């Protein structure tokens, strides 16, 4: 999500994670003293969002409030699902990582994009974040996958962030954008979501522009480290055209909603960099259409 070890400021958080369970003891220590949190940025008035999307926004607000009151680790423990995964920087089971962690600083964030499965049991949120009080301020743009629990509450099953300049937080807040996950009319495709993810991974080294053009939803968001977030098919393809070639990518995991119409995948990728190949992880959010699975979000960040 904010991506503590992924959500907010992955690089800084991953470094802090090296001391996560050193001398923690049974009681979770509070983070070290930090400057008061940045006041929440005012979001412009907007049209009412769908009720399902509002639930995720409300959950995000409760998550942020828990962080402000109890610190980063306590908040993440409260909102992590039993099978939650965080990137630290590699995919890591959230429970053991948070059990005795001690992460200093103050983490603030706000959702900018939300999408919810038609069945109402799986969702994603994505937006800017800022980590302060643990050294130099560090910005991020997170993507979190949420699953409704048996008690009706939402918990995150995956949380990831791409590093961004700290200025991403001070930029004017935008109204929450609710992406539609409803399947378009027409008979469902026989294509499986993991099959679609694998097909995209095979196509990427042959030409990312064509590969994404075949898969991007018109509403899609594309997130890349230290790059402006692109929303909409045209802007996303323009960003892809300006990125280094992807050398290889492969799927590690994922899951679908109970209705089978919405889901997420995550995996590892390598791409060309100024000093040679670079590696990282992607998280993708998909929705089913009669033409096959289409991307609502594609989030790729360095390891």
Structure, described:
- The chain is α+β, with helices and mostly antiparallel strands and 303 residues long.
- The protein folds into two domains: 10-179, Nuclear Transport Factor 2, Chain: A (Roll); 193-302, Nuclear Transport Factor 2, Chain: A.
- The protein has eight helices and 14 strands.
- Helix 2 (51-70) runs antiparallel to helix 3.
Under CATH, the topology of the largest domain can be stated as Nuclear Transport Factor 2, Chain: A
The SSE order reads: HHHEEHEEEEEHEHHEEHEEEE
Mean pLDDT: 86
* Beta fraction: 35-45%
Helix content: 10-25%
Q: In CATH, what is the class of the largest domain?
A: Alpha Beta
Overall spatial form:
globular
Unreliable residue stretches: 4-45
The CATH architecture of the largest domain is Roll
**Total beta-strand segments:** 14
> Largest beta sheet, briefly?
8 strands, mixed
Query: How many helix segments?
Result: 8
Head-to-tail CA distance between termini: 16 Å
Structural class: alpha+beta
Radius of gyration over C-alpha positions, nearest whole angstrom: 18 Å
């Amino acid at each position: 999500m904010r991506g503590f070890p992924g959500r907010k400021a992955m690089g800084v958080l991953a470094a802090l994670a090296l001391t996560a369970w050193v001398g923690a003891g049974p009681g979770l220590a509070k983070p070290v003293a930090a400057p008061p949190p940045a006041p929440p940025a005012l979001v412009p008035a907007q049209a009412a969002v769908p009720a399902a999307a509002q639930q995720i926004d409300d959950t995000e607000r409760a998550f942020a409030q828990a962080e402000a009151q109890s610190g980063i680790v306590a908040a993440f423990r409260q909102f992590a699902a039993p099978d939650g995964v965080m990137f630290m920087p590699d995919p890591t089971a959230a429970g053991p990582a948070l059990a005795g962690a001690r992460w200093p600083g103050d983490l603030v964030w706000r959702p900018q994009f939300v999408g919810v499965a038609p069945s109402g049991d799986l969702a994603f949120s994505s937006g800017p974040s800022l980590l302060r009080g643990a050294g130099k301020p560090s910005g991020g743009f997170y993507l979190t996958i949420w699953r409704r629990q048996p008690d009706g509450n939402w918990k995150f099953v995956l949380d990831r962030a791409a590093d961004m300049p700290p200025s991403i937080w001070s930029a004017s807040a935008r109204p929450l954008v609710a992406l539609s996950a409803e399947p378009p009319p027409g008979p469902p495709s026989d294509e499986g979501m993991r099959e679609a993810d694998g097909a995209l991974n095979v196509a990427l080294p042959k030409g990312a522009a064509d590969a994404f053009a075949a898969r991007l939803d018109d509403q899609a968001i594309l997130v890349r480290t230290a790059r402006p977030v692109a929303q909409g098919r045209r802007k996303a393809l323009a960003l892809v055209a300006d990125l280094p070639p992807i050398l290889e990518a492969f799927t590690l995991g994922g899951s679908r909603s109970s209705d089978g119409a919405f889901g997420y995948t995550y995996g590892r990728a390598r791409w060309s960099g100024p000093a040679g190949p670079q590696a990282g992880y992607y998280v993708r959010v998909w929705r089913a259409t009669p033409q096959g699975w289409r991307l609502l979000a594609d989030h790729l960040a360095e390891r």
